[in-house]
Amino acid sequence: MSKTDYEMVVGLEVHAELSTDTKIYCSCKNSFGSEVNSNCCEVCTGMPGTLPTLNRKVVDYAIKMGHALHCKINNVCKQDRKNYFYPDLPKAYQISQFDIPLCEHGYVDVILDEECHQKRIGVTRIHIEEDAGKLIHDDSFSGSLVDFNRCGVPLIEIVSEPDLRSPQEAKAYLDTIRSILQYLDISDCKMQEGSIRCDVNVSVRKCGSGEFGTRCEMKNVNSFSGAMRAIEYEANRQIEVLESGGTITQETRRWDDHRGQNFLLRSKEDAQDYRYFPEPDLLTIVVPEERVQQLREEIPELPGEKLLRYVKDFGLPYFDANLLCESGEKRALFEEIAAKGGIDLKAAANWLNGDITRILNEKNKTLAESSLSADKLIGMISMIEQGTISNTAAKTVLEEMFWQDKEPSEIVEERGLGQINDDSALQAIVGDVLQKNEKVVMDYKNGKTNALGFLVGQCMRATKGQGNPAALRELLLKQLG
Amino acid sequence: MQLYEKTAGELHDMLRKKDCSASEAVESLIERIDAVEGKVHAYLTKTPELARETAKKVDERLAAGEELSPLAGIPIAIKDNICTKGVRTTCASKMLENFVPPYSATVVHKLEHAGTPVLGKLNLDEFAMGSSCENSHFQNTANPHDLGRVPGGSSGGSAAALAAGECTLALGSDTGGSIRQPASYCGVVGLKPTYGSVSRYGLVAFASSLDQIGPMGRSVEDVALLYEAIRGMDERDLTSAQREYEPLHGQLDGGVRGMRLGVPEEYFGPGVEDEVKEAVRAQIGELERSGAVIVPVSLPSTGYALSAYYIISSAEASSNLARYDGVKYGYRSENGSSLEELYLNTRSEGFGDEVKRRIMLGTFVLSSGYFDAYYKRAKILQGRIGQEFASAFDACDAILTPTAPDTAFRFGEHTADPLKMYASDICTVTVNIAGLPAVSVPCGKDKNGLPIGMQIIGRKFSEKTILTVAKAVETLRGGYHSLPQIG
Amino acid sequence: MKIDIEKIARLAKLKIEPDKRGMFETQMEQIVAMVENLPEMSERYVGVDPENPMRLREDEVRPSMRRDELLQNAPKVQAGCVVVPRTVE
User: Fold this and answer.
1) Residue A27's closest chain B neighbor by CA?
2) CB distance C53–A282 less than 8 Å?
3) Chain B residues in contact with A42 (beta carbon < 8 A)
4) pLDDT, chain C, mean
5) Is B192 marked active-site?
């Protein structure tokens, strides 16, 4: 048998840090990159006698994610202790949720390709829990250092059903989850800061088999592209084991992205016994039904629906629509332009994804810091469409109205950027250009048709970019016979 | 009568009338501690300078004509599992021998606010696990009524200090009887309040769902006074109840006439010594003669309560005490170089045997494959016990039982047999399991002159009712008694 | 009931000295025998009590603890951090 006879079965556990102001169980600041052990108190470092107090916003955020992933919201639920020893876990238990998660039985539709094929991925559950601290390893020093700043940072864990069948599907799912978190504005989703992480469960089975194979869990997957590599590697490893007559044993493995390999962390026999039991320091979480509904109403249009709408209703190519959907500011501006209408939306998308993005990136600014508005952009694009200005001139207009409180028409007038459409004026220029480029004219007549482009360019240069290129082309062709 | 012998109520009146100053009261107590502590060993840490400082401030406010809170200037001592900022809090464990909390328990803040001078921290069984104070890593505390006997536990230091006149008021904590049983053994009054009425913030956790800080004193009024000062909702403890509380001090003289008092036969079984049963029954007779209506009530699951208690409390303890790992605070073993060795050696060297037994029991009942058989069933039984009490309270206003099955035993008498020690809790654990309030009040003495306590159990938040009954018992017995002769 | 003391001790991160092993084993078996005394019950364990809902904390930042206070009880400190034997990485 070969690799293609097997199918991989993948489930993902995504941990996302929530962007609340305070930690989940105390009022310490929830922020990344502070001086070590500076955002801590007796509660988040588990000192004797201290008690947790649950942050209301954590519950709200998790419920929002639940709604976004079409989950059933368990508005009556509890928290449980997961007991294990590690230096980054000061209480030696993590407050999490065991048998009654805040949200469960959901799904998300993931767009798999440019043709917008979709697949529904089941979401088993979403629960709230606290993050652990960080261990610092320094080669100059024989021990490890513990920084408790991250202790108590709120997390949601989103567990998928084993519905994914390829690394590409896994990546599409992860991208979707990330953009939903961003749309809801509940997580920073900064992979490099570890604010979104995932554990990967992989098994393989013969194609057509209805039963699942034995799965292995992989930890330490620190990027989405790493997740794809880790899944590919693990599926191949399992196939190799099976092909050589072996069996897969349930185990936890550690992914090493540098080496592109994983290693056994612990086998099932060594599986930790977490001794979950209900957290006695906290009472039952009861979210009133009205609040659950209110949170549902706060859910915006989500990335998948929006992308499909851009493609279907506005005729944008998948790639352009996807780019637009990734930025909250750009899609908001785009939506405003679309609502006002009157111009070709594809052109608007091009400007947003092209020059506007480039300028923002160069200046490291946001749209909010600029003077751009839907009206200005509509004005500018209309002038192009009406032939009042050329694309080249429009770039100048854009640069100028980007940071200044000026209307595009004002700029065109001030700087004389209006396009020359007057045939007699253009006629003179064409005559002049042909005279100066006799050799090129000869080339053209000898069959080098691309010489025409050169001549149009020369005419444009002569008009300082203000000539209407279509009209110039027409005149040139007429003259050349 | 010396100032150290006075009740809090008496001292408060004297302070108000300027018959004495807070500083004089504190000095009297400090002298008394110096005189008898060598025999009683109730204190783990003494803080005379802190007490003097607080007293001085109170005297200044008195001189300025300020109205004082009832606890201002009344010397108190605190069980050493309640965190006091800047004063070491050991839980009588080697593990926390040098632990100085950078924060105070909510109850300690309340005392500070009231101007209550703190004399020091009192001995207990390690992490409040025990019934004799013999599980303290540091010292045995003696029962002031007989120095060869235990004061009970785990709040044995609190009860002994009160009985010996080494403090006027004391704070204890009660998870399965730890306030009431030592109060009974030492002939003082101890209240285990309704779960959720006193903030647990800063009480070093043993079993979070059962632990409650409570007041101890030599009179019922004193206990009411201290309870009023420490109760109330705390935003730092989400299990603390949000409610209006009625005033208690000076409101407890209603008597028992017409009150229906329940007597459950299950609490007078063969496990309870005859002398104890007789004393409690005799007191019940007195109450009946005072106009109370005595009604038999039934609490059929009582016999299973000890099992449920040891399962739930040990399960929670195994998790609560996991944080003592030598990393962030407390004892760290010098032996071993790996992380695993650090954990194993620190915890094995830092904890005493009883704590280890409870951690192991708790770990066992929570471990994979046993959770349903032990923890879940214990929690179901907990619900059932609560319902049985609720039905009993349909028929009566308070329930009367012995506090402990026996009187103070000799040092070493039960130490070899954990089960015998656990049996000390048979009359008290149901109250914690059901989250109810209960008070122990002295009701007699055995043939050796050792105090016997009666337990009065009430509905949730019915502290006023049970303290009224307790006050009636106290009054029937001729009021507050003088201190025993020490030694 | 036979209790696997070794396994329990390992989970609880306790080391039972050989000379105390027998004692702990016997005592644990006695204690477990005692707590096994529970009646048969048909009730279900739910674990939540909607009648007694929890207050939630508002998401408002309060000052954290000063680092010197935070670490004042730590057995070993270096570079503002608690020190532990090197963990595998």
Assistant:
1) B236
2) no
3) 101-103
4) 92
5) no
* Annotated active-site residue in B28, B93, B131, B154: B154
HSE-up of residue C34 (Cα within 13 Å, Cβ side): 23
CB atoms within 10 A of CB A354: 14
For chain C, the structural domain boundaries read 5-35
Question: In which domain, by residue range, is B54 found?
Answer: 3-259+440-454+462-476
Q: E strands of B80-193, at which residues?
A: 118-122, 169-174, 189-192
How many Cβ atoms sit within 10 Å of the Cβ of residue A99? 10
Rounded mean pLDDT, A208-235: 93
Cα–Cα distance between B339 and A419 in angstroms, integer? 76
Asked whether B146 and B448 are in contact (CB, 8 A), the reply is: yes
Q: For residue A47, give the nearest of B81, B315, B329 by CB distance.
A: B329
**Domain chopping of chain A, boundaries:** 12-203+271-295, 303-415, 423-480
* CATH code of the domain occupying A423-480: 1.10.10.410
Omega before B154 cis (within 30°)?
A: yes
Q: What is the DSSP letter of B232?
A: S
Distance of CA A139 to the CA centre of its chain: 35
This prediction has a pTM of 0.92
In the residue annotation, B39 being an active-site residue is answered as: no
B75 and B25 Cβ atoms separated by less than 8 Å: yes
Q: Which of C5, C3, C25, C23 is nearest to C15 (CA)?
A: C5
Judged by a CB distance cut-off of 8 A, whether residue A91 touches chain B is yes
| Closest-approach residue (CA) in chain A for C87 | A144
Please, what sign has the CA dihedral across residues B418, B423, B428, B432?
Answer: positive
| Average pLDDT across chain A, whole number | 92
Quick check: is B330 in a domain? Answer: no
Whether the CB-CB separation of B238 and B368 falls below 8 Å is answered with no
Range with top average pLDDT, A218-227, A370-379, B103-112? B103-112
Contact A429, A422 (CB under 8 A): no
Find, among A273, A257, A192, A246, the residue nearest to A220 by Cα. Answer: A257
Catalytic residue, from B23, B136, B155, B178: name it.
B178
How far A253 CA lies from chain B's nearest CA (Å)? 21
Could you give the 3-state DSSP secondary structure of residue B353? helix
A134 membership: H or E segment, kind and range: strand A134-137
Report how far residue B207's alpha carbon sits from residue B154's, in angstroms, rounded to the nearest whole number.
Answer: 13
Number of domains into which chain B is organized: 1
CA B42/CA B120 separation, integer angstroms:
10
Please answer whether residues A63 and A295 qualify as being in contact, where contact means their C-beta atoms are separated by less than 8 angstroms.
Answer: yes
Best interface-test mutation with C: which of B135, B209, B318, B363 has the largest number of C CBs within 10 A? B363
What is the distance in angstroms between the Cα of A108 and the nearest Cα belonging to chain C?
A: 29
Task: Detail the DSSP E strand segments found in B386-464.
Answer: 398-402, 438-445, 451-458
Give the sign of the dihedral formed by CA B231, CA B233, CA B238, CA B242: positive
Q: Which chain B residue is nearest to residue C7, measuring alpha carbons?
A: B364
E strands present in A148-301: 154-160, 196-206, 216-221, 251-256, 261-267, 277-278, 285-286
Of B130, B466, B85, nearest to B310 (Cα)? B130
Strand partners, A11: A201
Interface size A-B, in CB pairs within 8 Å, comes to 100
Nearby residues of B206 by Cβ (< 8 Å), 6 or more positions away: B81, B127, B128, B129, B173, B175, B313, B316, B317, B320
- Please check whether residue B371 touches A, CB under 8 A: yes
Nearest to A93 by CA among A36, A38, A151: A151
Q: Hey, are the CB atoms on B306 and C73 less than 8 Å from each other?
A: no
- State the CATH number of the domain containing residue B145: 3.90.1300.10
pLDDT per position as a tens digit, A90-129: 999 999 999 999 999 999 999 999 899 999 999 999 999 9
Residue C89 has pLDDT above 70, yes or no: no
